[in-house]
Specification:
This protein is an alpha+beta fold and about 1900 residues long. The chain is built from 66 helices and 44 strands. The strands form twelve sheets. It has a seven-stranded antiparallel sheet, with helices on one face. β39 and β40 form a beta hairpin.
Length: about 1900
């Protein structure tokens, strides 16, 4: 029973204490005067009566009522019902008050001015019960009695009110007296009566309609937010202008938190004076009047809910953890079904007629039903995670949070973690934990409805029905008898409310009268028999256990039976000592142990092998068991939510091995490195569960003794500890005092003994084996553990006691004290905590504190012995470190560091794609001056004897990243490195634990120092073979004095000697090659001449360099690739031929000092007519001064290829804006622009086709022969130039028949500045000019058929002459300038100029860099990719590498086409050293077969890449300076393009694919100096350009990659392409579309057996080592070494040799056996080829020869289909053959010449270019007759060959044109053919002899003589 009201007060405005207009309240009267013992009077009520402050008002306000809640010191809530009305004050009272106040206040308050003022007065009821309506009625009645002056004395009413007693809660059986209980009718004696319905179960909150109101005001999402915020302990503030609403909202929020109770600050109405409470650091729920809104603005961490506006404001810094999905979604759905039932059917066509939402009070209960259902789901199974640690005298219960989260698979869930950690849940456990108590609705839900909830959770309508049932129960609880509602309470009459005047003051009550009432009632209560309300206690059911509830929602790993079987088998093998079997299973077991089920299975299996707490193992068994334990523990979190560490804890102290006499090592000393052991929560949970088991055992024994007979009835079900405890609690009152005391004492000592046991256990796991270094405690920071404890009792004595006992123990051991102390402190803190919570007596606690230091110290001593012994054990299983073989000159910088090579994203080696798992491997990493090498053996025992090698040159390192790695074999997280190299290698290593972390750091520093040396001289190519680690710079300089001078004087001397006049002696006669290189005195006279206009500053090298330096000069000449220029006829250095004066080009030495352009070579080819002075001026218009120079000339069409950088912007404008033809003098153009035009004009003039049209600049000459398109030859030209051009420039229309996807500019379809719309075809009929359409840059309107013409269809024209518009365009451009689209904007093309600009989009260097990064990631991913969208092909596509290759190839093919059709091309892109170099080199490679040989390719790279200054060092980021620019593989891109062409034309290249890979590898490896530095200038400065020639001091160290390749090529045919059978003059036209390109296998392949195969010495050595091993059988016997080949392990090229290499090797070995000196492989091969040719010649009928592959007539299908025409009259008929037909058969069809001959026969249209052929009679040697022979004049090879007949393959003889001195008309000699005129004879005089020839007629003879003469002059 309880009082309805504890106190009644009257509070009034205090006139005496007014401060500055702020009034205060004072308590006028209070009843009873004395405090009740059970409920003291709450302080500060005056503030709460007027929360906004006490104020006087000018007019009367209506009476108001609200309930405030005050919390007292015992955290009990007092409900203060305040009824406030207003009374008038007369002036008199006020003045009195003011008089006393005058001295304080300066001016009067403004309120006072009105005639009458009103002061508030409050009637307040203070109660422990919350009956708002009853309070409203009671106070209203008192007020009515007063206002209406009823006859009842107020004292009686108040007295009755204070003595009214009601039951707290009704019972559950509705018997008669129960009904009495729960229905209490009260009257206050003023003719009123009220029925109070008390709730049936007082543990359920009473909410009225407050919850429903709250949802109406704020909405579902907002309330859910507040709900989660309240549970996770955030601060919540409600705002409203109504006080009653604030109280209701707070009450509503608390109601939905049931069964949790809010335990923080709870103030539904906070008075304005106390607003500073809001800045408290603790959580709260507070309501404040909106009047104070502005003051709440600066609160940063408070969630503000505005009830009037319906908003919830969450500050930025506050993160609310919401309910876990899917609960959140389901809850929202249910709530909206209740609050807005129409939502579901809003879209239905025929909505059901009525879907009213329930009445407010029913809705309120339904919402609460939803939250009850929600909590039942959140907390299901919580009782299975309770630990009962004491039963008597009071049950003490702890909740095992980790186990609960683990079983619910919610250990990651933020919300639940916070809720379980919160105060509310702590209260929940202490209140609902006890097993014997009264139960309520929630207990029933948890115990009996879990199954139903689980089945229905997915179906909202079923859940809804359940919620409605719950709502019914809740409603019934609040309104047990809804029918009974008799309220009869008088309200004040209307009249009394309206009359304002003469209202009497509320009277002072007679306290004696009221007190009498109270005393009387108290006396009556004493005499009455006590009402004993039977409290129905019972055992609390636990509900279904959690285990099985989870597997459905938890992500259960695939713990297939197979995995568990593997674990079981492995353990069985270990204990049966079948170690080999166990070793094989081990990796699988360690993989399986990732799964929870397998880990639990492991602990169970191990348990079976423990006998009497001990299991002694031998070393290997011990090792395996420890490894399995470590693997199991490494995935446990520090919480150990699956209880695995808990299960292992008894095992680690059971398994042991004998180390020596009486010394045993236990498993715990090897499994300490896990976080879980340093977690206080874990130890507490373990301790409590052990205590629970022991106490259960304690009572089970007593039960067993007393009740054996009940055994049968128990039915074998194991009694849980909670059930036992509840039974014990039930019996407790029946026990005698002694029995009770005995039980308490037994329990206490049980706990105590466990505490001792745990102190020992903890010292086992916390003290490291080697106590001198203590990683564990340091890393875990044991000092901070206190804050994250698992239970909720505070430590009272922990700190102080631990300290005092610590010092007493007296152990101060020097080396181990810090470890010992930290462990002692940790254990002390643990013991304090658990002993306080479980009620251990103080004496026992003190004893414990004394024991702990001793325990620890003893343990340290035993450990020392174990540590000593364990060191003596042979270390198990660390494989021997293998040394790598080093190159000559390569030195180790850091010796072996033991590491694990762990798998990256490449799956081949991990065994996932079949084959053995080679990775992870264990070995060592070595850092040398050249490479980074890993060597080791796979950890998988099945392949343990293989050796795994991964290495890459240190110079190719592109990215280094620290990673942390968990190795499957060990338990530790290692630090590691991931190193990526641009040779497409990735080394991912984890340092072994024996490697100190500072060592790893040293390793990184060294690596960086080697990767980015200060200067290029720090690279391996320079430091190799030197004794010092770094370069000593002067050495190189002393070696070659002349270089020193040259480099010093290069620029200075140029300035110094500027005044010296220098005039050339001859116009141009350079010395011969022989003279140059033999370095004779002629050097003094024979200077390299320059042209007549010698500039002041242009000095020859001879004038600056002393004669001792001349050697260097000759090297400059050689290096400048003069050989090549001579071959191309671009400028010669030979004296023996008289030079024709009109030679179009010359070798200029203007740049010999590198003053004009730093990055160009010293000698350059420029037009003959351009003086050097002009060049010096022109170069300023180009970026980097890289002006146009000639680099190649087409021997047939004489078109030239030029290269330059892009123009400077001003240059472009000056260059192209001049609208006039060059012939007229432009007015506004400046001089450089003119000279530039002059330069281009000179180039154009050099072309024979131009001079043929008599050099006219006008257009008249070009209309002469307009080529008709009906010609058959044109139809066969495959890539049409117009179409090509179109693709390259990406114009608007797509040309029919071209590939539209891959076009270069498809994305940026720009109409270019000036499009050459060329429709011409390749090989024209004789004398035919090109028909071409010149456009002025726009697709003009009057030229509608451009598209068709571009596609190769000329628009029909009448023969009368083309239309005017077309006439202007009828000329072919002589020079095409390939320029950058971005550069050429705004220029205007002149329609009369002979050049034309082709704007294309170039790939920027940055694009290449980014593309390469992505390509590397695609080819060598760093981790396996799970995302299917990121497959290899997708990544490859996204890298756009192929698109870039396509772009470069496409432009190159276009240039090839243009050159082939006789136009010159100038490539002028970016700075002229990246894309330009790529395009120019590819063009030469495609056009000129010479560059497809070894020598040619070397020359091409030296000339175009090295001499012309591609910035290898800068692009390769080779030094510290260029580190920031990053790695940009421009050269690699070029090599990839060559590789693509090689794939399409495998018979055209002398070198193999391996050669390209070799270059790709070594151009970044820095092993050779070839690809270092950025230009010849820099190379000369360093003195490295020519030293390769002279120095051969250390023959094993090659400085040039070319020398190395030459040497290697002599030894082995690895670089040679056996399919090489070139066709003369073949121009290659590869397909360039992305679909035709292949990914280069260089990017993908890897050989783990030996590392990259590009350092050949290493390869050889490893083989030799292998041969020396004795197991190999004798090599002479027949042997079949079969050998499994693993794709990523073995080198496929080695193990699967090609037939020819195999035969060559066999031959060599046979020769060796016979004792002959073996021949070079190349000689053998050449012999074979020649005999092959003769063999074919002898076989008249077509047959397939045995080595068909070698024969040169196996012509693979060529891309170009050509028609070969020969002029009639030279003794031949027209031969038409298509290649593709010819190649269909492999030997030539009789009667038709094979392709190779066709090639040599083919004649072009231009007379000069004719490689002439026909029949001539030749006089034999002495005394031999004249014979007719078929002669071929070959201009490229520079020879005259003759054959027996025209069809013949085998050449009979060769006359080298180089030896020819003259061609003169001859005379007939003896035996000459008859009937031939005399003029048909001519003689050819060579250095050796004179040849006599006779042609068919004089005309023919003249033709032959001219042809030979022209060839000679060309040379």
């Amino acid at each position: 029973m309880a009082r309805l009201a504890d106190y009644f007060l009257v509070v009034t405005y205090d006139l005496d204490k007014r401060v500055e207009g702020e009034g205060q309240g004072r308590i006028l009267q209070r009843f009873p005067e004395k405090d009740w013992e059970d409920s003291p009077f709450p302080q500060g009520i005056e503030l709460f009566c007027q929360p906004s402050g006490w104020q006087l008002v000018p007019e009367r306000q209506p009476a108001s009522f609200f309930v405030a809640v005050l919390t007292d010191i015992n955290s009990d809530r007092n409900y203060c019902a305040c009824f406030t009305f207003w009374e008038g004050l007369d002036r008199l009272q006020l003045q009195k008050a003011e008089a006393s106040e005058v001295d304080e206040v300066d001016e009067e308050p403004a309120v006072v001015q009105s005639a009458q003022v009103f002061a508030p007065k409050s009637l307040v009821l203070v109660s422990r019960l919350d009956y708002t309506e009853v309070f409203r009625n009671c106070l209203g009645l008192i007020y009515t009695v007063h206002v209406d002056s009823l006859s009842v004395p107020l004292e009686t009413v108040v007295g009755n009110l204070l003595t009214c007693i009601i039951p707290i809660a009704g019972g559950s059986q509705p018997g008669q007296e129960e009904r009495e209980e729960s229905l209490r009718t009260i009257t206050l004696g003023a003719g009123d009566r009220q029925v109070i319905q008390t709730p049936i179960d007082d543990s359920l909150p009473v909410s009225g309609t407050s919850v429903a109101q709250l949802f109406r005001q704020l909405g579902i999402i907002n309330v859910l937010c507040l709900f989660c915020a309240a549970l996770t302990e955030h601060k919540i503030l409600f705002l409203s202008s109504s006080y009653q609403r604030l109280t209701d909202a707070c009450r509503g929020l608390l109601s939905i938190m049931f069964p949790l109770k809010y335990s923080f600050t709870y103030v539904p109405i906070l008075p304005g004076k106390l607003l500073e409470v809001l800045s408290t650091p603790t959580p709260f729920i507070i309501g404040v009047n909106s009047f104070f809104r502005s003051e709440t603005q600066e609160l940063l961490d408070v969630i503000i809910a505005d009830l009037d506006g319906g908003t919830v404001t969450i500050p930025e810094c506050v993160h609310i953890s919401l309910l876990p999905e899917p609960l959140l979604q389901q809850t929202q759905t249910l709530l909206s079904m209740i609050l807005d039932p129409e939502l579901e059917i809003a879209d239905q066509a025929f909505p059901p007629p009525s879907t009213q939402s329930s009445a407010l009070k029913i809705q309120d209960k339904e919402i609460r039903g939803v939250f009850l259902w929600l909590f039942a789901r959140l907390f299901q199974g919580y009782r299975w995670c309770l630990h009962i640690i004491r039963i008597h005298p009071e049950p003490v219960i702890r909740f095992h949070k980790a186990a609960f989260l683990g079983q619910r698979a919610l250990s990651e869930d933020d919300f639940l973690m916070k809720v379980l950690d919160g105060m509310a849940f702590a209260g929940f456990v202490s209140e609902r934990g006890p097993p014997y108590r009264a139960t309520d609705l929630f207990d029933d839900l948890i115990a009996n409805q879990v199954e139903r909830i689980r089945q229905e959770e997915t179906c909202p309508h079923k859940v809804m029905n359940h919620v409605k049932e719950l709502a019914e129960q809740l409603f019934k609880n609040e309104n047990p008898y809804p029918a009974v509602a008799m309220h009869k309470v008088q309200r004040p009459s209307e009249k009394s409310q309206t009359t304002t005047q003469n209202q009497t003051q509320f009277p002072t009550l007679d306290d004696v009268a009221v007190q009498l009432f109270i005393d009387h009632a108290a006396a009556k209560l004493k005499t009455a028999p006590p009402v004993v309300k039977v409290e129905l206690k019972g055992m609390v059911p636990s509900g279904p256990p959690l285990g099985d509830t989870v597997d459905r929602n938890g992500i259960v790993m695939a713990n297939s039976a197979r995995r568990l079987e593997v674990v079981r088998n492995c353990i069985t093998y270990i204990f049966e000592n079948k170690m080999l079997e166990a070793k094989k299973l081990m990796p699988a077991v360690l993989r399986a142990l990732k799964g929870r089920a397998a880990r639990i299975c492991l602990t169970q299996e191990l348990n079976q092998h423990v006998l009497q707490n001990r299991a002694v193992l031998d070393d290997q068994q011990f090792d395996y068991i420890v490894r399995m334990m470590n693997c199991t523990l490494q995935d446990c979190s520090h919480m150990d939510e699956h209880g695995i560490a808990a299960n292992l804890l008894p095992l680690v102290t059971a398994f042991c091995r004998k180390l020596g006499a009486g010394i045993t090592q236990f498993a715990y000393s090897c499994v300490q490195e896990h976080m879980v052991w340093t977690t206080m929560q874990f130890w507490e949970a373990m301790f409590y569960s052990d205590v629970q088991n022991h106490i259960r055992a304690l009572y089970l024994e007593t039960e067993d003794n007393s009740s054996e007979q009940q055994d049968g009835s128990a039915g074998g079900r194991e009694i849980s500890a909670l059930d036992l405890a509840s039974e014990q609690n039930r019996l407790w009152p029946t026990l005698s005092k002694e029995m009770q005391a005995e039980r308490v004492q037994k329990e206490e000592s049980t706990v105590f003994s466990q505490a001792i046991h745990y102190a020992n256990r903890m010292s086992y796991l916390l003290l490291p084996l080697d106590t001198s270094k203590n990683r564990l405690l340091r890393s875990a920071g044991l000092g901070d553990v206190e804050s994250v404890s698992n239970s909720y009792v505070t430590n009272s004595i922990a700190g102080s006691m631990a300290e005092s006992y610590d010092t007493e123990s007296g152990f101060e051991d020097a080396e181990s004290s810090d470890v010992a102390n930290s462990v002692v402190r940790f254990i002390n803190r643990f013991v304090d905590k658990v002993c306080n919570e479980s009620g251990v007596t103080n004496e026992h606690l003190k004893a414990l504190h004394t024991m702990i230091p001793d325990i620890v110290q003893m343990h340290i001593e035993t450990l020392d012995a174990v540590h000593r012994e364990s060191k003596r054990l042979p270390p198990i299983q660390k494989p021997k470190l293998l040394r790598p073989t080093l190159l000559p000159g390569e030195e180790l910088v850091m010796d072996a560091m033991r590491v694990h090579l762990i798998p990256d994203g490449r799956e081949e080696a991990t065994g996932l794609m079949g084959g053995p798992p080679l990775l992870p491997a264990e070995g060592a990493i070595f850092l040398t001056t050249y490479r980074l090498i890993f060597r080791g053996t796979p950890t998988d025992p099945l392949v343990g004897e293989q050796v795994v090698t991964r290495s890459f040159p240190i110079a190719s390192l592109t990215k280094e990243k620290r990673i942390s790695v968990t190795l499957p074999m060990d338990q530790f997280v290692q630090e590691g490195l991931q190193l990526r190299s641009c040779t497409f290698q990735l080394i991912k290593i984890a340092f072994d634990e024996e490697v100190a972390s500072d060592l790893a750091e040293v390793f990184r520093k060294h690596m960086h120092k080697l990767r980015y040396p200060q200067h290029v001289q720090g690279t391996f190519a320079f430091t190799v073979g030197q004794c010092g680690k770094l370069v000593v710079e002067h050495k190189t300089k002393d070696k070659n004095q002349s270089l020193k001078t040259l480099s010093k004087n290069l620029v200075k001397s140029a300035k110094r000697t500027i005044g010296r006049q220098y005039v050339t002696r001859k116009k141009y006669s350079p010395p011969t090659w022989e003279n140059r290189s033999s370095f004779q005195s002629e050097m003094d006279e024979d200077e390299i001449s320059v042209s007549e206009e010698v500039d002041q500053s242009s000095l020859t090298l001879s004038s600056t360099i002393r004669s001792s330096d001349r050697q260097t000069m000759s090297n400059v000449v050689e290096r400048a690739c003069c050989r090549d220029y001579q071959r191309l006829g671009l400028g010669t250095l030979s004296n023996s031929l008289t030079r024709s004066k009109n030679e179009p080009f010359r070798i200029s030495t203007v740049n010999r000092m590198y003053t004009v352009c730093r990055s160009y070579p010293g000698l350059l080819i420029v037009p003959q007519s351009i003086p050097d002075t002009t060049i010096q001026r022109i170069c300023r218009c180009y970026r980097q001064n890289r002006f146009p120079v000639v680099c190649w000339r087409n021997s047939r069409t004489k078109a030239v290829l030029l290269r330059s950088a892009g123009l400077h912007a001003k240059g472009v404008v000056g260059f192209f804006k001049s609208p006039n033809a060059p012939s007229s003098v432009p007015s506004q153009a400046d001089s450089t622009s003119l000279e530039q035009e002059k330069y281009l004009q000179a180039i154009i003039s050099s072309m024979p086709s131009y001079s043929e049209s008599s050099g006219r600049n006008t257009l008249s000459g070009f209309t002469s022969t307009h080529m008709s398109t009906s010609d058959s030859s044109d139809k066969l030209r495959q890539p049409k130039i117009g179409a090509l051009m179109k693709q390259v420039m990406g114009t608007k229309e797509d040309v029919p028949g071209t590939f539209s996807r891959g076009a270069l500019g498809q994305r940026a379809k720009v109409i270019s500045l000036s499009q050459p719309k060329v429709s011409g075809k390749a090989r024209n009929p004789p004398r035919g000019k090109w028909g071409s359409i010149r456009g002025s840059g726009r697709l003009s309107a009057y030229n509608p058929d451009v598209g068709t013409r571009l596609a190769g269809k000329e628009s029909p024209q009448s023969n009368g002459g083309p239309s005017e518009a077309l006439f202007l365009r009828q000329q072919k451009a002589y020079l095409y300038i390939i320029g950058d689209k971005a550069q050429l904007k705004g220029g205007k093309q002149d329609s009369f100029q002979q050049w034309e600009v082709v704007p294309i989009e170039v790939c920027d260097v940055r694009q290449v860099k980014n593309s390469f990064k992505k390509l590397m990631k695609a080819c060598v991913p760093s981790s396996s990719i799970s995302d299917p969208n990121m497959s290899f092909l997708r990544c490859l596509e996204e890298s756009e590498w192929m698109a870039l290759l396509h772009r470069v190839l496409q432009v190159s093919v276009l240039v090839v086409e243009l050159l082939d059709t006789g136009s010159s091309v100038m490539v002028s892109l970016e700075d002229g050293w990246d894309v330009t170099t790529q395009v120019v080199s590819l063009v030469q490679l495609l056009s000129d077969p010479y560059y497809r040989t070894f020598d040619g390719f070397r020359l091409l790279v030296e000339k175009e890449w090295l001499s012309f200054g591609h910035r290898f060092s800068h692009r390769g980021a080779q030094t510290l300076g260029s580190q920031s620019s990053g790695f940009t593989p421009v050269f690699l891109q070029f090599l990839d393009c060559v590789h693509q062409i090689h794939l399409q034309f495998p018979m055209e290249f002398e070198f193999s694919q391996y050669y390209l890979k070799f270059l790709a590898y070594h151009y970044v490896s820095n092993r050779f100096r070839t690809f270092l530095l950025d230009s010849d200038y820099e190379r000369i400065e360093l003195g490295v350009l020519y030293e390769e020639k002279g120095e051969r001091k250390s023959p094993q160290v090659c400085k040039s990659v070319w020398d190395y390749i030459d040497r290697l090529n002599k030894k082995t045919p690895i670089f040679y392409n056996y399919m090489f059978s070139p066709e003369d003059e073949e121009v290659l036209r590869p397909y360039t579309f992305i679909s035709n390109l292949k990914v280069w296998d260089f990017y993908m392949e890897e050989t783990l057996s030996e590392g990259p195969s590009y350092d050949w010495e290493l390869r050889g050595r490893q083989e030799r080592v292998a041969e020396e091993t004795p197991e190999k059988p004798d090599s002479s016997g027949p042997k079949s070494h079969r050998h499994i080949v693993w794709p990523c392990y073995d080198s496929l090229s080695k193990v699967v040799p090609d037939a020819i290499t195999k035969l060559l090797q066999d031959l060599q070995s046979l020769e060796a056996e016979l004792g002959q000196t073996s021949e070079k492989w190349k000689d053998t091969w050449d012999k074979m080829k020649n005999s092959q040719k003769t063999e074919i010649k002898l076989e008249s009928k077509p047959s397939f020869s045995s080595s068909l592959l070698m024969s040169s007539n196996l012509s693979h299908q060529r891309r170009s289909q050509g028609v070969y025409l020969q002029e009639s009259g030279v003794g031949s008929s027209i031969n038409l053959a298509l290649d593709c037909e010819a190649s269909a058969t492999s030997t030539p069809v009789p009667g038709r010449p094979s392709t190779s001959t066709l090639y040599s026969q083919f004649q072009s249209t231009e007379s000069e270019n004719r490689s002439f052929e026909g029949i001539l009679f030749k006089k034999g040697a002495l005394l031999k007759p004249w014979k007719p022979r078929w002669f071929v004049l070959d201009k490229t090879k520079h020879q005259l060959r003759y054959y027996e007949t025209r069809q013949d393959k085998e050449c009979k003889g060769v006359i080298e044109l180089a030896d020819v001195e003259s061609v003169i008309p001859g005379t007939p000699t003896m035996g000459a053919p008859k009937n031939i005129e005399e003029k048909a004879f001519f003689d050819l005089k060579t250095t050796k002899r004179v040849y006599n020839f006779c042609a068919q007629d004089s005309l023919n003879a003249q033709l032959w003589m001219d042809s030979v003469q022209s060839c000679l002059s060309d040379a």
